[in-house]
Design a protein that fits this description.
mainly alpha; 90% helix
């Protein structure tokens, strides 16, 4: 066996492992995975936006209800207080 034949056998062995582990197609696999990942992220973002919008709507409704209660209590107290002030007006 000469040095060239050993070198060729090593190259063939390395190339077989490269093909076996799909290293030669790694760029295509990575691109495919990135496209899939991007799609999943966008789908998840849309879901979060829908959930967030629903949550925000619920919270704003709760705030509006509390505002109504606060307004009723505050306005009634102001009306009562202003009625008492009329007594002192001359």
């Amino acid at each position: 066996m000469d040095l060239k034949s050993v070198k060729d056998k090593i190259k063939k062995g390395i190339w077989r492992k490269i093909v076996e582990f799909k290293v030669d197609k790694l760029d295509d696999l990575v691109k495919s995975d990135l496209v899939t990942l991007k799609g999943k992220i966008l789908d998840h973002a849309d879901t979060l936006e829908d959930q967030s919008a629903s949550r925000i709507k619920t919270e704003l409704g709760a705030l509006a209800a509390q505002k109504k209660v606060w307004m009723v209590l505050t306005v009634s107290q102001i009306v009562q207080f202003s009625g008492r002030l009329r007594i002192f007006k001359v």
